[in-house]
Amino acid sequence: MFKKRINVSFAAYVAILPMALTVLLAYLGTMLWTARVSVSSSRTFPASDFVGASQYVRLFNNERWLLSLQNVALYGVLFIALCLLIGFLLAVFIDQKVMAEGALRTVFLYPYAMSFVATGLIWQWILNPELGIQEVLHKMGWANAQFDWIVDQDMAIYTIVIATVWQASGLVMALMLSGLRGVDEEIWKAARIDGIPRWRVYCSIVLPMLGASVSTAFVLLFVMVVKVFDAVVAMTQGGPGTASEVPAKFIMDYLFGRANIGLASAASIVLLLTVLAIVAPLYFVRNRRAAMGA
Asked: How many helices (H) and strands (E) does the chain have?
């Protein structure tokens, strides 16, 4: 019996070995290599010298990088807020045990199964002034109607928000719905007896109980914000001009287009630290609450 347990444990370790090597080499290894390159004078090819924080100084003196940070901050606030709001409302709607619930869940979640490239192309066509909504409005008789945000420098970033919120809200809906289905039915019975409005129950009782679902959704959405790239390239190519430039596109352009891997690596490390600064405290708080609950 003891020998059998040893064999099972050994088999489990062997099975997990490829994934462990992938994490150590492909993920941790590349992160360390990127950090090393970011403190060198590397341009087209990696250099082995050490120049300290000069690449980071150059990075934060780059107007295009600063613009990309402003854009992703605006995009992130709107994207996360709208996804959480719409996802929660969709979850509440489905939680009312509506007809064809399974079909509705599939419809709302289906956009998330699409790639961001496909989403970007679809919304590029919808928002194209010569093909999409604006042209439809013109044909319906509103000749002066305008909806040309995708070619407007001041509004282009909002078109990225519209497209990606449409895609990601279904994911939030699924997470919120799983949390709502865990709410004790006795709470609703007590609320009905006390005459408490349904919206008040959701705001004061149910939402605080969905802390785990909300924090999970927030982390997933935040990671999407940091690495948003495909939808931007598919819809606007970062334009008009650099109006919808985002950090991930800045990194890819400097890594492949301008052959400056030192600056691109510094930008990558900044994004990594940004993610860690948000995710690590949430992870710590959740683990601490779990330990206190145990």
From this structure: 15, 0
Instruction: Kindly report the number of other CB atoms within 10 A of residue 294's CB atom.
Output: 5
Tokens representing residue 111 in the block: 């956009």
The DSSP annotation for 94-132 comes to HTTT-TTHHHHHHHHHHHHHS-HHHHHHHHHHHH-TTTS
CB 12 within 8 A of CB 4: no
- Per the prediction, the chain carries an average pLDDT of 86
Mean per-residue pLDDT, 245-266: 91
Q: Residues 18, 23, 25, 28: what is their CA dihedral angle, to the nearest 10 degrees?
A: -170
**CA Rg value for the chain:** 24
Q: Which residue has the higher pLDDT, 197 or 6?
A: 197
- Model confidence at 157: pLDDT above 90: yes
Q: What separation, in Å, do the N-terminal and C-terminal C-alpha atoms of the chain show?
A: 32
The CATH class, in words, for 64-293 is: mainly alpha
| pLDDT tops 50 at residue 2 | no
Range of weakest confidence among 132-146, 150-164, 184-198, 251-265: 184-198
In the DSSP assignment, the letter for residue 151 is G
Q: Which amino acid is present at 113?
A: A
Cα-Cα-Cα-Cα dihedral sign, residues 59, 64, 70, 71: negative
pLDDT bracket for residue 74 (50, 70, 90): very high
Alpha-carbon distance 164 to 183, whole Å? 29
Q: Long-range contact list for 94-103, CB < 8 A, 24+ apart?
A: 94/173, 94/177, 95/177, 95/180, 95/181
